[in-house]
Amino acid sequence: MLTQGVMIGAALAAGVMTARVLGPDARGLYSLCVAVVTTAGLFGSLEIGQSMVFFRGRRKVPESTLAGAVLLVPLLLSVLTLAAIALAWPLLSRALGVLPPELLYLALGLIPISLSGAALRQVFRAFDDFTRFNALRVGVPISRVVFLGGAFLMGAGVRGVLLALFASEVMVFAVGLVILVRRTRPDFRNGLRLVPGLMRFGARLESATALGYASNHLTVFAIAAVMSAEEIAYYAIADGLVQQLSALPMIIGTVMLPKITGESESSGAEMSATTHRVTLALMALLCIAVSGLGSLLITGLYGDVYAPAVAILGGLLTGAFFHSGSRVLYPYFVSANRIELQVGIQAVTLTLHVALLVYWIPSYGIAGAAWALASARALRWILSLGAVRVLTGIPLHRIVLIRPSDIRSIWVAGREQLKGLLG
Fold first, then answer.
1. What is the C-alpha to C-alpha distance for residues 208 and 187, in angstroms, rounded to an integer?
2. In terms of Cα–Cα distance, which of 390, 408, 388, 405 is closest to 273?
3. Domain boundary assignment for the chain
4. What residues have CB less than 8 Å from 153, skipping those under 6 apart?
5. Using the 8-state DSSP alphabet, how is residue 401 labeled?
6. Is residue 213 a contact partner of residue 376, using CB atoms and an 8 Å limit?
7. Number of H-type helices and E-type strands within the chain
8. 104-105-109-110 Cα dihedral, nearest 10 degrees
9. pLDDT digits (tens, 9 = 90+) for 298-328
10. Is the pLDDT of residue 423 over 70?
């Protein structure tokens, strides 16, 4: 959580810099470029990070073999991802047509290094080495702030900003590579043999998560297809602020997967239920706080010119709350090897999301887009919750409602961690 706090601060600093220096129109183009890279990374990663956790935890694959594989897989994934974008261009051209060609090419050029860096960081998660995993994760936003600051001092526009992002990714990847090689000698021969297994298991995971990614990241492209760059910027500013809250369930889910994978099925189910009800309570408090401070946060941080973003905070915060629940429940489906349930849930959710975007964006603009996302996430949470209830037999109230014992446990754990940090 301390790591996440640093990441949130650095991400906010980068968001404020780009918003204030670039202005709404250029910031909208920048946001669309970042959306291209982020979405390609999510789809193109083929969930290799989670595959490595599974193979290390369940099948006890040696660290050296995983290290060799993680340096080979991103090369193949990058080729496949860029090829998929080329094939899908007739569908993407309308949403991405607003981007000047040079910006689009720069965004596409960021994809290989982004995939490689993400995979390299995830291998330390598979090693259950969260010290190095967190160090590299923190390095990404901090290096971005440094390189962005340098680019803006030199008077850079969107093109210079994208080059700064490329430089920061290269630097963090190089550091991660040195750390990995010092920890274990990569075994490329056995790593190459492991690649098909990693990709097969990753493809199964991707069949579920890709639909979720599509639902989560479809909104920006839908807005870009029918609205202006300024509207993209307004949505991206509000969404970026709310996403900082979503870091809580994300990091909890990241830690949960290797933990429950190494536990028995019943213990993993109990851990999932406890974590879910605690996360929901914490997210409710955070969403209420941000809702009350929303106007001050957006106009104070990004400037009065982004005031239209305040109107969509309610929908995005509602979506963040429901997303936190399904995000924390997801590791249980992976550890229990019930991925097909997630595929069905995500398919139903995506169908609803697309339908609502088609009907609500023309009538309500970015507010309609925000509430379409919230509705889809609410449905996903309800279906995930029902599936966990059926699979585990744990009553709903034990999955949803926080207990006094949970609060005491959080207090004790937090106090012990603080004492440890203070020496």
1. 30
2. 388
3. 1-210, 227-423
4. none
5. S
6. no
7. 15, 0
8. -20
9. 998 888 899 999 999 999 999 999 999 988 8
10. no
Length of the chain, please? 423
Q: Which of 241, 204, 238 is nearest to 343 (CA)?
A: 204
Helices (H), 303-403: 313-335, 339-392, 396-400
- The amino acid at 366: I
Residue 85: which H helix or E strand, with range?
helix 73-87
Can you give the pLDDT at residue 385? 93
Residue 272, token pair as written in the block: 């999932």
Give the number of other Cβ atoms within 10 Å of residue 292's Cβ: 10
CB 360, CB 225: distance < 8 Å: no
Report the C-alpha gap between 219 and 132 in whole angstroms: 34
- CA angle, corner 367, sides to 240 and 358, nearest 5? 110
Which candidate, 51, 37, 188, 198, places its Cα nearest to that of 113? 37
CA–CA dist 298, 308 (Å, integer): 9
Whose structure tokens read 């997630």? 342
To 5 degrees, how large is the angle CA 43–CA 44–CA 45? 95
0.90 exceeded by pTM:
no
Q: Which residue has the tokens 């390609």?
A: 40
Pick from 322, 342, 331: which is nearest to 280 by CA? 322
Residue with tokens 């629940």: 325
Cα distance between residue 357 and residue 376, in whole Å: 10
Round to whole Å and give the CA distance between 128 and 130. Answer: 6
